[in-house]
Design goal:
α1 crosses α3 and α2 packs antiparallel against α3. Strands 5-4-3-2-1-12 form a 6-stranded mixed beta sheet. It has a 6-stranded mixed beta sheet with strand order 6-7-8-9-10-11, covered by helices on one side. A hairpin with a 4-residue loop joins β9 and β10. By secondary structure, it is an alpha/beta fold. The protein folds into 2 domains: 249 residues, no CATH class; 259 residues, Nitrilase/N-carbamoyl-D-aminoacid amidohydrolase (4-Layer Sandwich). Helices cover 43% and strands 14% of the residues.
Length: 530
């Protein structure tokens, strides 16, 4: 192992860049749908050894001395994000005649931008680089901070955070209920990078003992929470999820929109297999209604006719405020609307976290002057909602709608005045076809359920739809491109989540632990130098 590490440390130029790129790329196989986390025990030790050799010239300035470490982390991140996010380009091919030119921006430029965060992680770690255990702790802290920054900077995009690699099954997801994804990012990097110590001339047992303790605690707490500390499940909500699998090429086609709407109604009105499974709530996917409901009162009447008394429809829909004919300002929202059995629009919750370039154009007027437009076809650019809004269900329970990738943000629920009984995630992943993207999206919804201890009801246009309980267990679901309905009874008295009860403070405690470990590892060296 020492000989291998020595060869990696001495790599230079394009060989160093290629090795870092490949080390990052193979780590993608630890994410859904592959879940082969063992590859990270290769990728991260190689990254450590590459950083061992990433030393700048002594006379150079502060930033120039960090540049080799930054470049190493950037190439690692570039490989990771190219291999993990290439499927985003599929969205541009749906309307290829308009957006195919932008394919390199999605599959090259976006990963290059995201790789900057990993470059910052390794540059930060290199500031505190020490022999043996200290450098592993510094790397874990650097990645923990970088992943947090990736979730908040430039509107945030924490897709495929490293911590997900350590949570491939419900048993191994339970630690997220304490330290959240932010804490798991640092823990995962520490454990994955620890085998780099095998190349040390003086082997440090402390590193392996700490890594083993983290793994034992991770698995042990998972077993306790998942298998022992189980609520009664007496409070339940009966729900029907509709997955229509409408082709993205015809979703907004005016000639077929009535047929699409009729398909949704027929699926919703079908009798359940068992009379006692009659749903209280029916959920349609994101922008399922292929027109503005405000322009089609007949559609609301049809929805009311399809619902029985006491039932409610929650559907993704485009919502408009303002009348263009009156000259008033018009705003469009990507929303979840609630319709009762009388065909009345009784509530709505608007998406707050919009996708740049997908749902709106940053610097819209300027970019439109160059002929650019948003990828998502809609009557106009979406406006963000002003506040998270809970929707009260017919049984008195409350639901928090999260539209599309809003479900990937850990901190969304940390500042709500009232805790919802269930999370409703509506999405349309048909943009991405049969690629890893929809499976990665679903996995992140699973982790949100565990973090919050709240079940997630997920309706996706073409999949992956399903119900996830507060432990991350998938009660049932539909794979990609299946057409049908899921009738399920969802347990609402979920497990306690220390992460949600403390507004995520345990994530920062986990990061502080690695900061302490980094500092403590440096102290003996300083004493010897005095």
């Amino acid at each position: 192992m020492e000989r291998l590490a020595g060869k990696v440390i001495l790599l230079w130029g394009w060989q160093r860049a290629l090795t870092a790129f490949l080390s990052g790329a193979i780590c993608v196989f630890a994410q859904a749908p592959f879940d082969f986390f063992a590859v990270c025990f290769i990728g991260f030790p190689v990254l450590v050894w590459l950083l061992d050799g990433a030393t700048g010239e002594a006379p150079a300035g502060f930033l120039r001395r960090l540049l080799p470490a930054f470049a190493t982390g950037w190439w690692f991140g570039f490989g990771y994000f190219v291999a993990g996010l290439w499927w985003i380009g599929n969205a541009l091919l749906v309307r290829a005649e308009e957006f195919a030119w932008a394919l390199p921006l999605a599959v090259i430029a976006l990963p290059a931008l995201l790789a900057v965060f990993y470059g910052l992680a390794t540059a930060f770690a290199r500031l505190f680089w020490r022999d043996e255990l200290g450098r592993i702790a510094a790397l874990a802290l650097g990645f923990g901070l970088a992943e947090w920054l990736r979730a908040v900077a430039l509107t945030g995009f924490p897709w495929n955070a490293i911590g997900y690699a350590a949570m491939p099954t419900p048993l191994l997801m339970q630690s997220a209920s304490v330290i959240g994804l932010d804490g798991m990012n640092a823990v995962a990097v520490f454990v994955f990078a620890t085998p780099a110590l095998l190349a040390a001339r003086q082997r440090v047992k402390t590193g392996f003992i700490l890594a083993a303790a983290m793994v034992i605690a991770h698995v042990g707490y998972g077993f306790y929470r998942h298998e022992v500390d189980v609520p009664s499940g007496e409070e339940r909500l009966t729900v029907r999820i509709v997955q229509p699998s409408i082709s993205q090429t015809e979703k907004w086609d005016v000639e077929v929109r009535d047929r699409i709407f009729r398909t949704l109604l027929d699926l919703s009105a079908a009798p359940p297999a068992q009379p006692e499974d009659k749903p209280t709530v029916i959920v349609w996917p994101e922008t399922a209604v292929p027109f503005l409901l405000s322009q089609r009162p007949d559609a609301l009447t049809a929805i009311g006719a399809a619902l029985d008394e006491g039932q409610m429809l929650l559907s993704g829909a485009v919502r408009r405020e303002g009348d263009p004919e009156s000259g008033a300002e018009v705003r469009y929202y990507n929303s979840v609307v609630a319709v009762n059995h009388a065909g009345e629009l009784v509530d709505a919750s608007d998406k707050l976290h919009l996708v740049p370039f997908g749902e709106y154009l940053p610097f819209g007027e300027l970019l439109r002057s160059f002929g650019l437009q948003q990828v998502v076809e809609s009557p106009g650019s979406f406006s963000p909602g002003t506040a998270r809004r809970l929707i009260t269900l017919p049984n008195g329970m409350t639901a928090l709608p999260l539209v599309c990738y809003e479900i990937i943000f850990s901190s969304l629920l940390n500042h709500l005045e009232k805790r919802p009984d269930v999370l409703i995630n509506v999405t349309n992943d048909a943009w991405y076809g049969d690629t890893p993207g929809p499976y990665q999206h679903f996995r992140q919804a699973q982790i949100r359920a565990v973090e919050q201890g709240i079940p997630v009801i997920r309706a996706a246009n073409n999949g992956v739809s399903g119900v996830v309980d507060g432990f991350g267990n998938v009660q049932d679901g539909f794979a990609l491109d299946v057409v049908g309905t899921l009738d399920l009874s969802v347990p609402l008295d979920g497990p306690k989540s220390y992460y949600s009860l403390t507004a995520g403070i345990w994530s920062w405690i986990a990061l502080l632990f690695f900061a302490f470990l980094t500092a403590a590892s440096a102290l003996p060296l300083r004493r010897r130098s005095n």
